[in-house]
Amino acid sequence: MVCLGNICRSPMAEGILRKKAFDKGINIEIDSAGTGDYHVGEHPDKRAVETMAKCGIDISDLRARQFTVTDFDEFDEIYAMDDSNYKNILSLSRNELDESKVTMILNLTNKGENRSVPDPYFGGLDGFDKVYYMLDDACEVILQNN
Ligand code: 4NP
User: Cα 15 from chain centroid?
Assistant: First the structure.
């Protein structure tokens, strides 16, 4: 799960997918990262933690890290939150296999539309609720596909 700062959207996506996989007894490796390095080492944004806590998911212990080229080797599927993240991830790809792993996450629920998960960082709590519902639907599709 990849966004820009790895403190709002992608840690929420990581937490949602972890919970769903655990509940369904599916054993998969899940992680998140940011294309930028501004928040490396930080815990998720308080508003993301609060929104997830309302839904019974604790992401307070996560720490931001930056996406690196080795993530193409570690993971089979890489989900970008928005078109800028998508382009930045692809700019690090080395071959067609790397490229084939990258998907705009909302294309799981809105095929071919290349919609972005709106960045909630500069808005209020309601933006985080919207992000939660979008990611919850998309993560459900990921587990149906696995
Ligand atoms: P994220 O949100 O990419 O969903 O973690 C952001 C976090 C921080 C900033 C931008 C977006 N920032 O500009 O610092």
Answer: 9
* Tens-digit pLDDT profile for residues 5-42: 999 999 999 999 999 999 999 999 999 999 999 999 99
Q: Indicate the pTM of the whole model.
A: 0.97
pLDDT tens per residue, range 90-112: 999 999 999 999 999 999 999 99
Distance 38 CA to ligand 1 centre (A): 8
**105 and 80 Cβ atoms separated by less than 8 Å:** yes
Separation between Cα atoms, residue 8 and residue 128, nearest integer Å: 8
Catalytic residues: 3, 9, 119
User: How close is the Cα of 122 to the center of ligand 1, in Å?
Assistant: 8
What ligand 1 atom has the least distance to the C-alpha of 38?
14
pLDDT at 145 over 90: no
Contact criterion met (CB below 8 Å) for 117 and 9: yes
CATH superfamily of 2-137: Response regulator (3.40.50.2300)
Domain ranges for the chain: 2-137
The minimum-distance atom of ligand 1 relative to the CA of 4 is: 3
